[in-house]
Amino acid sequence: MSETKAPDAxxxxxxxxxxxxxxxxxxxSESGYAKTTVEGIAARAGVGKQxxxxxxxxxxAVLLDAFLDLAARAAEEAGADPGQTxxxxxxDLAADLRVVLRATVDELNNPRYDAPTxxxxxxxxxxxxxxxxxxxxxxxPQLRVFARRIEAARAAxxxxxxxxxxxxxxxxxxxxxxxxxxxxxxxxxxxxxxxxDHALRGLAPRP
Length: 207
Hints:
This protein is an all-alpha fold. About 70% of the residues lie in helices and about 0% in strands. Helix 1 packs across helix 4 (about 60-75) and helix 8 (about 165-180) runs antiparallel to helix 9. The longest helix is centred in the last third of the chain and has 28 residues, at about 130-155. The termini are far apart.
C-alpha cells in the first residue's frame, strides 16, 4: 500500500507569495497604483483576500515586498554576488561612477521597475512607516555604498580631504532621481556622465 504524503504547507505558501508578488507588480504596471486593490491582487494571484491580509496590512506593504523580491531576483539573474555591496574600484573614480550611474539610468527607465518605484515613492511620502521602510531597505544601502567609494577616493587623494562623502553622494544621485521623479528632462547615459563630470569638479582636491 503506497504512502500518501501530506501537502507541503511551506511550498504552498511560497507559491502563493510568488503569485501575489507577480500580481501586484503586474497590476501596478498595467493600471497604476491608485486603481490597484488588494481584491484585484488576490483575484489575479488566485488566492483569497484574507490570505493577503494575513501577511500584509495594505497593498503598499505588498508592493514593497514584491519590489524587494524583484530586485533580489534581478540580481540573481545578472549573476551578482549577494555579498558584493561595493561599487567598482578600478582606481578611476569618474569611470566607476559613470558605470554605476548609467546602470541606475537603465533601471529607472525599465518599465519593470518604473511603475512600482514611482508608486512606492509617492505612497511613502504620505505613509511615514512605509516611507521609512522604503528608505531603509532600498535607498540607504545604495547611498552608503556610494559614500564608501567616495571615502576610498578621498583616502587615495582623488577628492578634497574636506569633502563630506554623504553630501557628495547626494550631489550625484539626487539630481538623477529628481529628473526621473519629476520628468524634468530625458534620463540618459549622457546625463549621468554629465552629473559625474560636474560633481567631480566640485570634489576635486584644491591646489
